[in-house]
Amino acid sequence: MRRLMFVAVFLLFPTLVVPTFALSPDEESVHQQAIAVLEQRIREAEPREQCFLYAQLINQMTEFSRHQYAAGNSGKANALLHQVQGLTQKLHKTVSENDKRLKKAEILLRRTAFRLNEMLHASSYPDRTLLQETLAQVNQADNDAMLQVFKR
Question: Domain for residue 2, yes or no?
Answer without folding.
Answer: no
